[in-house]
Amino acid sequence: MTGAESFLADRAVRSAIAAVSKGGSEIEVTDADAAMLDVGVFAELTGPSLFASERVLVMRSLENLPSEMVPHLLEYAGSPSDDVLAVLVHSGGQKGKGVLDKLRKASVNEVVATAPKTWELPQFVAGEIRLHGGTVDEGAASALVDAVGHDLRALAGACSQLVSDSGGQAVTAELIGQYFGGRAEVTSFAVADAAIAGRTEPALEQLRWALDCGVAPVLVTSAMAGGLRGLAKYASAPSGMREADLAREVGVPPWKLKQLKQQARGWTPGGLATAIKAVAQADADVKGASGDAGYALERMVLTITRSHGRR
């Protein structure tokens, strides 16, 4: 299992263990840190079990495997035991890449745990809901992302809860509002949408409400940066592109293009440049450059709404 998205990696590990246990035989699962392994321990964990017919070794943090252990792991990968499943978890990055390359050459099966891009999260939600036997439309899936945020573990939990409580009906925006409405109304995305639309008072009201409800300042600058980046890409995209091509160019799902088209009407290149600079400054301020994050965010919102429509 390779990749930095821990939720997907953990799910892949659970799936691998479940696949072994489907045979109905007793299995012994050992979870070990690669950094703590030596030759003797590795030989013991990959050998026959005294208490079960099959065993699973989950080796975490493969990138920290001691160099003297690499030859032993590769030797085992070349001729694994029929009764032992070794699940190797690499958390991403360049460290330990040499070991990964050698394991790939040994034809070890690889599952990549890559986090979906922001614009792909509604697709992730829809897939999770289908996994639990439910249905959801694109708008409702996007509403859940806006309400819960970008953490996959939290989104997956919300999907499971909604399907369980939907009584076999489709998961709708109304149902999401019942469960997460209070959070949805104060998300950083609501602040960003109001500010990008040039609506000063609603944007400031949403900002104060969000901060009072515990939304982290860095999430507000992140949502604002994402919204303005998408708008800038949309405004600078070649004219006449097909909808699917334009969505890929901008990096948003197709349904988002309608909103960007509406937002773009009030913006000029100069105004966008000013707004993006304001977000960069606010992001630095909330990360330590300023002692008052609330003031920095208010100044950002005011600069952005005043830049709306400015030539």
Structural summary, described in words:
This protein has 311 residues and is mostly helical. 59% of the residues lie in helices and 6% in strands. The protein is built from 15 helices and three strands. The chain has helices at 6-21, 39-45, 70-78, 97-105, 121-131, 138-148, 152-165, 173-184, 188-196, 200-212, 217-236, 243-250, 256-264, 269-289, 293-307; strands spanning 27-33, 54-60, 84-88. Strands 1-2-3 form a three-stranded parallel β-sheet, covered by helices on one side. Helix 9 (188-196) runs parallel beside helix 15. The longest helix is centred in the last third of the chain and has 21 residues, at 269-289. It is elongated and about 75 Å long.
Secondary structure elements and pairings:
Elements: H1 6-21, E1 27-33, H2 39-45, E2 54-60, H3 70-78, E3 84-88, H4 97-105, H5 121-131, H6 138-148, H7 152-165, H8 173-184, H9 188-196, H10 200-212, H11 217-236, H12 243-250, H13 256-264, H14 269-289, H15 293-307
Parallel strand pairs: 1-2, 2-3
Brief synopsis:
By secondary structure, the protein is mainly alpha-helical. It has helices at about 5-20, 40-45, 70-80, 95-105, 120-130, 140-150, 150-165, 175-185, 190-195, 200-210, 215-235, 245-250, 255-265, 270-290, 295-305; strands at about 25-35, 55-60, 85-90. It is built from 15 helices and three strands.
Estimate the helix proportion, in percent.
Answer: 55-70%
Number of strands: 3
Summed up, the helix count is 15
Strand content: 5-15%
In N-to-C order, the SSE pattern is HEHEHEHHHHHHHHHHHH
**Could you report the average pLDDT, rounded to the nearest whole number?**
87
Distance N to C terminus: 51 Å
The secondary structure category is mainly alpha
Instruction: Enumerate the spans where pLDDT stays under 50 for 5 or more consecutive residues.
Output: none
Using only CA atoms, what is the Rg?
24 Å
How many strands, what sense, and barrel or not for the largest sheet?
3 strands, parallel
* Structural shape: elongated
What spatial order of strands do you see in the largest sheet? Answer: 1-2-3
